[in-house]
Specification:
This protein is of the alpha/beta class and 262 residues long. 47% of the residues lie in helices and 12% in strands.
Amino acid sequence: MRSPDPAGSSPRRDVYLFATCVVDLFMPDAGLDAIAVLEHLGCRVHLPEAQTCCGQPAYTSGFPEESRKVARAQLDLFPQRWPIVVPSGSCAGMMRHHWPRLFADDPVLLAQVRDIGARVVEFSDFLAATDLPMPAATTTGPVSVCLHTSCSGRRETGALASGRRLLEALPGVELKIQAYESECCGFGGTFAVKQPDISAAMAGDKVDALTDSGCDAFVSGDCGCLLNLNGTLARRDSALQGRHIASFLRERWGLPAPDGDA
């Protein structure tokens, strides 16, 4: 990826970005914005072009062997000892906590998987924990925002606390806490396909909570959740639409839209 001179004089830090298949196929703007944010903070972002999927859809559907094959294809993509930033709590959780289960019977691959897992970090967690200087916000118009954290991200990463910290640090941003914040949006990967009626009801409850909060906008670190919730809102002809937290940060920090960004 391009590596422009970052703001300030901090040395660059090399990181990998595992963009996820949902970002790649459905919300590429979120991936581009994540890269823009990381580069502005002084990171040199490496995007392995052969990356595909973490294997989570097959894994949560009860097909571990198929999931293992998909995951195996990713293992040689991160040879350097750099952090692996993942703009998805569910995918970060899969790579960190569930890949070792897939390769538990192969000592060599298990060691490689554990090394990778130790370097995997969810996007919000990386930003909140980094010692890189945060830029001052230049878009200061007041806005109220809700944070939706995926079930996996909430359980398996620190994305909830990290996301709150990032949003609360932005001038002009009021963080609202939605009712039933910890409840699932109904996406659940293939759950939304296998159980569409239940998924739709859950998404409806979540959309009700977001709307009732009075927020001007909502953000999430998981694009699967955003697809589910934004689709529900669109069917209701609601003007409210969610964005990935990387896109929200890029905009509030006044960074230009990357090439190809919508």
